[in-house]
Specification:
The complex is a heterodimer of chains A (about 260) and B (about 475). Chain A is of the alpha/beta class and about 260 residues long. Chain A contains nine helices and twelve strands. Chain B is α/β, with parallel strands linked by helices and about 475 residues long. The radius of gyration of chain B is 22 Å and the shape is globular. The chains are: A alpha/beta (about 260), B alpha/beta (about 475).
Chain lengths: ~260, ~475
């Protein structure tokens, strides 16, 4: 579903990703881990098409199509979803209004009819339960005055409503207490399916106690330095990242 | 680098003004220039009584002693007051008595603008008075309103049919000596709308006037007078447009509102005069004096304005809170883009006891637009327990536009509570990317952000017009990003 080959990305002229490879198949959940400043968030955002992130070499293919050059909305309509580490506030815009506009854009792109207000309300209420979110939050302005946990749940709610093919979760676990973390993980697990792929970008292993990934990758200094099964996450929890950054494999890659 | 890397708040383009067509009708107009003779000629054309002519002449003589004000944060070349036609009317008798008498070309113009005048096609529950250049061409639903004792007609008709009301209230809120543009208007005003709602009557429909400037080199000087008698209520909406022309055209209107005891007036404006082209050529100079007098106890006047047009907007819809417990409100969205300039705001004058006022101003600047909020809150010595809340928010799009806030505060009574909040923000690239990553186009994303920013004002508009205002805003900001 997602094929990233030798991806180089620069932000403000500074190279951040220096040759990343990643292959994700439908139905799989991958975790991308790594220390701060390794390029994890850059990877997440460049897949979603963030302006200012220049692809200087390499390829990102999604469902066989070249993503580079597509606008963020084109990617979203094609089924890519990015859950933000820092969800953005949109004052005066009701949460439900954004959800409805977004869903109808995506439905139009899928050749489906748009939902009217009543059908949409039924649909969105059915999704609220997945993330344990209060209905009241639908009528508040997007992310405005939301607690950290509410913001993250709201991201998962958007994902549940939009039903993307490929979901990228950027540090969705950061800043969450254990209850919020469980609620978010429950939502993510409920959305796992054979047609959907997910990439979890995270610094800590603890999210992976609740969401079991199929593959774990370690990104350090803009390169994937190690890949493995779920057990790799536990090893990282125990040993930290230092041994990998110093590992011969990484040194070779840097040379 | 792909094109996605280039999207963001960037250069601003000018979407073409969609209301800029010219209607080909035969015009009758007085020669250019202003003199006592022109004032007399206008008055004679309208068959006015002597007292009104004298009032005009007094205004004209006073105007000649004044000079154009320059304190507003706007810039324009000198206006040649002798280069303007002060009266233009579609040929035929002025003020047709029924729709069948209206030139079909003019009816077609209003249809093009989305203002059908045929009653059966009209927006349910909205009575319309249409002013084309200097004269009122049609007033709908007049009979239905008359059965309730409500007068809703062209100003010139009110002078003929209800001279005692006009004489009692004309100039009682905005005197003919008030300011340069108000004096000019008093001297040469040609038509406008008159509304009287009798005691205890709630007007059952929105009253609406649509102003259209059509002729070139012509000023429009309409005058609106609304009187809400004791315990009555009325909601009034005005809309405006003009053809695109390379020269600037002057629009100097006066609006007077009088709310007697327990009366409520809600006055909404959707102003979309031609703003000029992207180099700043042409466009309307919208220099307007609007003032409401909460004359009676517990009276309430609410101004809501959505200002997207005009090359220059200079207006301060104000409230004189004279009656005890009177309430004044001002809700405003002003958009400037291209080379548009706006200096707008309000004056809340607290005179009576326990008077309250609320001011919510939303300024949006894009391109090289300049947007200033100028507001005065004045609490007189006798105004015990006066309250004011003012909120001024500015939204900037791009880096070449400007926003300014000039709040003035004069408080002469220690029991007053006055609050002022102001914010300035930009549409963030983060906000845009967030919405785009949810499938919205850059344009839809901007509209959503801007509409959210204006929400507190839009919710004050009558429902149908809130929808119109949102569409208008979307059109005005088309191409503002990307």
């Amino acid at each position: 579903m997602l094929e990233i080959t030798d991806l180089h990305v620069a932000v403000d002229g500074k190279p951040i990703l220096k040759g990343v490879d990643l292959s994700v198949q439908a139905g799989e959940v991958h975790a991308v881990m790594g220390p701060n400043g390794s390029g994890k968030s850059t990877l997440a955002h460049v897949i979603a098409g963030r302006p200012g992130y220049a692809v200087t070499a390499g390829e990102i293919r999604y469902l066989g199509q070249d993503l580079i050059g597509q606008t963020p909305e084109e990617r979203a309509r094609a089924g890519i979803f990015l859950a933000f580490q820092y969800p953005v506030e949109i004052p005066g815009v009701a949460n439900i209004q954004l959800l409805k506009s977004a869903l109808n854009q995506v439905r139009r792109a899928r050749g489906e009819t748009e939902l009217d207000a009543m059908d949409f309300l039924d649909y969105v209420q059915s999704r609220l339960g997945l993330v344990g979110m209060k209905e009241e939050l639908l009528y508040r302005a997007v992310n405005e005055g939301f607690s950290g946990g509410e913001k993250k749940r709201n991201e998962i709610l958007q994902m549940a409503v939009l039903e993307p093919r490929l979901a990228i979760l950027d540090e969705t676990d950061s800043g969450l207490d254990i209850d919020a973390l469980k609620a978010v993980a429950d939502g993510v697990n409920a959305l796992r399916g054979p047609q959907r792929a997910m990439v979890l970008v995270t610094h800590y292993q603890r999210l992976l106690n609740y969401i079991r990934p199929d593959r774990v990758h370690v990104l350090a200094d803009g390169r994937m330095v190690k890949s493995g099964g779920p057990e790799l996450a536990l090893e990282l929890e125990e040993r930290g990242y230092g041994w990998l950054e110093a590992a011969p494999e990484a040194r070779r890659a840097r040379a | 680098m792909g094109k996605s890397e280039n999207v963001g708040i960037g250069d601003l383009m000018q979407e073409e003004y969609r209301w800029g067509f010219v209607t080909d009708v035969e015009q009758e107009r007085v020669p250019k220039g202003l003199s006592e003779d022109v004032v007399r000629l206008i008055s004679a054309k309208k068959g006015e009584p002597e007292w009104l002519l004298e009032w005009r002449l007094a205004a004209y003589r006073h105007w000649r002693t004044l000079s154009e004000p320059h304190w507003a944060k706007v810039h324009h070349p000198p206006i040649d007051y002798q280069g303007i036609h002060y009266y233009a009317a579609p040929k035929k008798k002025a003020g047709p008595s029924k729709l069948a008498d209206v030139d079909p070309e003019i009816l077609a113009t209003y249809e093009k603008l989305g203002i059908p005048l045929k009653e059966q096609e009209m927006l349910a529950g909205v009575a319309v008075d249409a002013v084309f250049d200097s004269v009122s061409v049609a007033t709908t639903y007049k009979e239905k309103l008359a059965s309730l004792g409500i007068v809703f007609c062209a100003f010139s008709e009110a002078v003929r049919e209800h001279p005692e009301l006009v004489r009692q209230y004309l100039g009682s809120v905005v005197p003919h000596t008030d300011n340069f543009f108000a004096s000019l208007n008093a001297a040469v005003f040609s038509d406008g709308t008159f509304v009287y709602v009798p005691k205890g009557v709630r007007c059952p429909m929105e009253l609406s006037t649509y102003f259209r400037i059509n002729a070139n080199d012509t000023g429009q000087f309409e005058r609106t007078l609304i009187i809400a008698d004791e315990g009555s209520q009325v909601s009034y909406l005005e809309g405006c447009s003009a053809p695109r022309r390379d020269e600037n055209q002057l629009h100097a209107a006066v609006v007077e509102l009088v709310a007697l005891q327990d009366a409520v007036i809600k006055y909404s404006t959707v102003q979309n005069w031609y703003p000029g082209d992207k180099e700043g050529r042409g466009g309307i100079y919208n220099f307007v004096t609007k003032r409401g007098d909460c004359r009676g106890a517990r009276s309430r006047i609410s101004w809501t304005q959505v200002e997207t047009g005009s090359a220059i907007t200079w207006k301060y819809p104000s409230c004189l809170l004279r009656g005890d417990d009177a309430v004044g409100e001002f809700y405003s969205v002003a958009v400037t883009r291209g080379r548009q300039q706006a200096d707008t705001g309000t004056k809340m004058i607290h005179i009576g006891k326990n008077t309250r006022s609320t001011v919510v101003s939303k300024g949006i600047s894009a391109g090289e637009g300049s947007n200033a909020y100028r507001g005065l809150v004045k609490v007189l010595a006798g105004a015990d327990n006066a309250r004011n809340y003012t909120q001024c928010d500015s939204l900037l799009m791009g880096s070449r536009c400007a926003a300014h806030t000039f709040p003035y505060l004069e408080v002469k009574n220690d029991s007053a509570q006055v609050e002022h909040e102001a914010t300035t923000g930009k549409i963030g690239d983060d906000q845009l990317f967030y919405l785009q990553s949810r499938g919205l186009s850059a344009e839809d994303a901007v509209n959503m952000i801007v509409n959210g920013f204006c929400k507190e004002v839009f919710k004050e508009l009558p429902m149908e017009f809130a929808v119109e205002a949102q569409k208008l805003l979307a059109v005005s900001l088309e191409g503002a990003v990307g």
